[in-house]
Design brief:
The structure is a homodimer. In chain A, about 10% of the residues lie in helices and about 35% in strands. Chain A is mainly beta. In chain A, strands 2-1-6-5 form a four-stranded mixed β-sheet.
């Protein structure tokens, strides 16, 4: 089963060489997926302990779907899988960064990245998309 | 004051050309900061409505500090500011991506990025740092 070590206090958490993920009150940690080749940020999703453990073990990005309330192996239904080439964790270990080889679009709208709109004041534009 | 339009339902939220941020139960939205020059992902932080509005208006990355419970103009005390060159929002508008020109280290540990440790099973390594 998934038994991670607990977080440490203060700067010890920043400097430890042990994985000690800090899950939030809902038992989740934020996960950013970045294209390993282009560096493009593809999406932000969430992992519970099981999803993080599976991602580490299988090398296939696995999240927790907050809307469906279930483990979500990315691409299992769409075929748009993410092969994880590297996992990074941030200073206080409440976020992970996945470098991935993305097959197909990362976004459920079939776009390459979920961040396809630019904020211009209160308006959004769609760079790179035809009118 | 900060009065954003409310989120829309379903795919309308994905396709709208209006900024309609989806704040969570705590009134927060996730914000990823990415180096505009190198593409390196620097940090993940949080914004409330005021922080998002200030970031848009000032072009200077402004977050909500969950630990201190206050607005946090990045670099105000450290000098490690983030000049925002572009803001992106994701499909359901519950996350933003800031492209920034980072002065100094983005991390409070003075490292360039908060994601300075690589996950290798249950262990972490510090790529690029001397033993």
């Amino acid at each position: 089963m998934t038994a991670f070590l607990p977080p440490l206090s203060g700067s010890a958490q920043d400097e430890t060489a042990e994985l000690r993920p800090r899950f939030d009150a809902n038992g989740l940690i934020a996960a950013i997926a970045q294209d390993a080749v282009t560096g493009e940020v593809l999406m932000l999703a969430w992992m519970n302990a099981e999803a993080l453990q599976k991602t580490i073990e299988t090398g296939r990005a696995t999240y927790w779907s907050r809307s469906r309330g279930e483990i979500w192996v990315k691409g299992e239904t769409s075929g748009h899988t993410q092969e994880v080439t590297e996992i990074r964790v941030d200073c206080d270990q409440d976020a992970v960064l996945l470098k991935v080889r993305q097959t197909g679009g990362a976004c459920h709208t079939h776009r390459e990245s979920c961040f396809y709109r630019r904020v211009d004041g209160a308006a959004l534009s769609f760079p790179g998309e035809a009118d």
